[in-house]
Specification:
The complex is a heterodimer of chains A (about 180) and B (about 100). Chain A has about 180 residues and is mainly α. Helix content of chain A is about 75%, strand content about 0%. Chain A folds into 3 domains: about 90 residues, NADH-ubiquinone/plastoquinone oxidoreductase chain 6, subunit NuoJ (Four Helix Bundle (Hemerythrin (Met), subunit A), Up-down Bundle), CATH 1.20.120.1200; about 35 residues; about 45 residues. The chains are: A mainly alpha (about 180), B mainly alpha (about 100).
């Protein structure tokens, strides 16, 4: 009883609330038959994950998660749903066999992974608390823009090329075809 | 006292397989895209927890997560433009209806 009591702190209670919200809204995202509601549940899931990052005291990551995922990706998905006629109203009918297949795949995979996680003994680093408190923008910036070991300038530049290619590609793909089809 | 890192890993495992279920069971292309977002977020939680609790000296998982978020945003934009193009061709967005390259 004593060693259970020492885990009951404010941070851990917040973790359990956020984890429950993440899982609940995640399950609602994949089971909801109305797709606009599914997008809303996805938004709540991403929001709770941002809360998890805050609980781990990674503030910048929570801000990135909120602005890129909750602000960008979900809005994009909602726009796509609204652009596609009839998708917002009609209910999605699931075939039974796909559902059973999905449930079996998910449960088997989850069992395998959870048993592996339970088997491997991870030990938390002793310095975890005090180092996580010291992470600031200066450290993140020098990690992102440095060229030494454990610094990531090259992937940063590569991702800028990726984003450029993605802008051009999505414009070209979504463009209306002017020529008449044969 | 902090929770063991396994609690985060188990959370991300469960979220990952919720996404896998959605990927298999949904038939709508946009629902499949949302399931992929769930899967990517589960992986992100895993990266961040491993960085925060096991190897806090460097910010490796942190930076990886930022890159995953950037790639996921790019992927979503391209996927949605493909989906809108598919809708123009077939007038619906069911995964079953796109089978021209299948046979």
């Amino acid at each position: 009883m004593e060693n259970i009591m020492q885990y009951i702190t404010a941070g851990n209670i917040i973790f359990f609330i956020l984890a429950a919200a993440t899982l609940l809204f995640g399950i609602l995202t994949v089971t909801s038959t109305r797709i606009l509601r599914a997008a809303t549940y996805l938004f709540f899931t991403l929001f709770s994950i941002a809360g998890l990052y805050l609980q781990m005291s990674y503030d910048f990551l929570a801000a990135v998660q909120l602005s890129v995922y909750a602000g960008g990706v979900v809005i994009l998905i909602v726009f796509a749903i609204l652009l596609i006629k009839g998708l917002g109203e009609e209910k999605e009918i699931n075939k039974g066999d796909r559902k059973i297949m999905g449930i079996v795949a998910a449960i088997m995979g989850a069992l395998v992974c959870v048993s592996f996680i339970a088997k491997c003994g991870f030990t938390n680093s002793e310095l975890a608390e005090q180092i996580a408190e010291q992470v600031n923008m200066h450290m993140i910036g020098s990690t992102l823009m440095g060229t030494e070991k454990y610094q990531y300038l090259l992937p940063f530049e590569a991702s800028s090329i990726l984003l450029l290619a993605c802008i051009v590609g999505s414009i070209v793909i979504a463009q209306k075809n002017k020529e008449v089809k044969k | 006292m902090n929770l063991p890192v396994e609690s985060y890993f188990i959370l991300s495992t469960l979220l990952f397989f919720v996404g896998v279920y959605g990927f298999v069971a949904r038939k709508n292309l946009i629902s499949i895209l949302m399931s992929i977002e769930l899967i990517l977020n589960a992986v992100n939680i895993n990266f961040v927890a491993a960085n925060r609790f096991l190897f806090p000296e460097q910010l490796e998982g942190y930076i990886y997560t930022i890159f995953v978020i950037a790639v996921a945003a790019a992927e979503t934009a391209v996927a949605i433009s493909i989906i809108i193009n598919v809708y123009r061709q077939y007038k619906n967005v069911d995964a079953k209806s796109i089978n021209e390259l299948k046979y």
